[in-house]
């Protein structure tokens, strides 16, 4: 059976070191190590990790070391992020959030995981992203928190 390709935004990497989110972020990383899922990150996550604390930088490097796929910030993703903005999903100052969605959509991942409940993991926003994706010729993107995706080992 094909392993799901799971796009991890920067909040999930940082979540490995946050007491509220660590159990699920770290469980997801364990899933990647155990080959349950394919980790997918992007050049945008790499840029955001560069200015993050050293622990987050090392966790990002760990994802790359265990074989995470690295998606580019390409013209298609930039155009799709602009479409989200044009439709008023988020103000332009939250361009990186729009770009995470666009990169994952253009990269045809199976699911995007995030701890960003204000701009990404929110039903009204997910519906809007999906509508723009369909209008732009892409499939809707599945968006969840790591809590809903990570395996629960007994």
Features of the shown structure:
154 residues, alpha/beta, Rossmann fold, 5-stranded parallel beta sheet, 5 strands, globular
Q: Which spans have pLDDT < 50 for at least 5 consecutive residues?
A: none
**Average pLDDT, to the nearest integer?**
96
Q: What number of domains?
A: 1
How would a textbook summarize the main sheet? Answer: 5 strands, parallel
Number of strands: 5
How do the SSEs run, as a string of H and E?
EHHEHHEHHEHEH
- Please report the number of helical segments: 8
CATH class: Alpha Beta
Q: How far do the termini sit from each other?
A: 23 Å
Question: What this model shows, in words?
Answer:
There is one protein chain. The protein has one domain (4-149): 5'-nuclease (Rossmann fold, 3-Layer(aba) Sandwich). It has a five-stranded parallel beta sheet, sandwiched between helices. 51% of the residues lie in helices and 12% in strands. The protein is built from eight helices and five strands; from the N terminus they run βααβααβααβαβα. The chain has 154 residues and is of the alpha/beta class. Strand 4 (111-113), helix 7 (123-135) and strand 5 form a beta-alpha-beta unit.
């Amino acid at each position: 059976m094909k392993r799901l390709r799971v796009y991890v935004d920067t909040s999930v990497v940082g979540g490995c070191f946050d007491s509220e989110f660590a159990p699920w972020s770290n469980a997801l990383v364990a899933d990647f190590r155990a080959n349950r899922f394919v980790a997918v990150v992007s050049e945008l996550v790499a840029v955001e990790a560069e200015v993050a604390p050293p622990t987050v930088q090392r966790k990002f490097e760990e994802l790359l070391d265990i074989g995470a796929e690295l998606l580019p910030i390409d013209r298609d993703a930039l155009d799709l992020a602009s479409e989200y903005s044009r439709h008023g999903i988020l103000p332009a100052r939250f361009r990186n959030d729009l770009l995470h969605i666009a990169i994952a959509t253009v990269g045809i991942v199976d699911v995007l995981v995030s701890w960003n409940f204000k701009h990404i993991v929110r039903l009204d926003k997910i519906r809007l992203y999906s509508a723009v994706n369909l209008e732009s010729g892409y499939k809707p993107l599945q968006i969840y928190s790591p809590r809903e995706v990570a395996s629960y080992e007994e």
